[in-house]
Amino acid sequence: MLKEVAFSKDDLIGIDALCFIEGDYLRKTKNLNYAIHIFDLGKRIEAKMGTRTYRWMEQIADCYENLMVQSKDNLVAILYCQKAIECYKSVKNLDEVNQLEKKYAELKSSLDLRCSKYDLDMTDILKFCSDLTDDLLKNDASYIISFLMNYANLLPKLQDMDKMAENQMKQFVFITLFPTSIPCVFG
């Protein structure tokens, strides 16, 4: 069984500097996601030590900005831009926030989301439901309950649901790749 070890402040002396050096090296070598992780680790170490030597959030925000610039996909670039804005807001760097909000608006306006529209004629379905309802209401309550429990078209079997899901996955391959909504900082 592993024993939980608690580090004292003295055990952490110098580790924040190592995190900054390593994070800076990772940023310069374009290994930005790992740099963000190392900068976040350094921030947590300084918080535990009770010191404030490095500007961790600005380093993290800079990495997110670089990721935004490197991104070939506008949707991903928007996400990195939002994260950079959050980091700069947390340290109250309003110049960078304003600059990134302009960039965010530019990215958002250049985003081309296609819309699919399907027209469905419901008249046959509504007529069937209306006729079924009229027929059911002519019977007593026990028959209606029995019908609702046993009618296969109301509650399809598990195998039928699996087949329907597989058919939809084959027919609409990309539908699972995209979110149903896109978060926006401006609402």
Quick overview of this protein structure:
This protein is an all-alpha fold and 187 residues long. 64% of the residues lie in helices and 0% in strands.
Question: How would you characterize the overall build of this protein?
Answer:
The chain contains eight helices and no strands. Helix 1 runs antiparallel to helix 2 (32-49), helix 2 (32-49) runs antiparallel to helix 3 (56-70) and helix 4 runs antiparallel to helix 5. The model has no long low-confidence stretch (mean pLDDT 84). It is mainly alpha-helical and 187 residues long. The longest helix has 18 residues, at 32-49. The chain has two domains: 9-110, Alpha Horseshoe (Serine Threonine Protein Phosphatase 5, Tetratricopeptide repeat), CATH 1.25.40; 123-174. Helix content is 64%, strand content 0%.
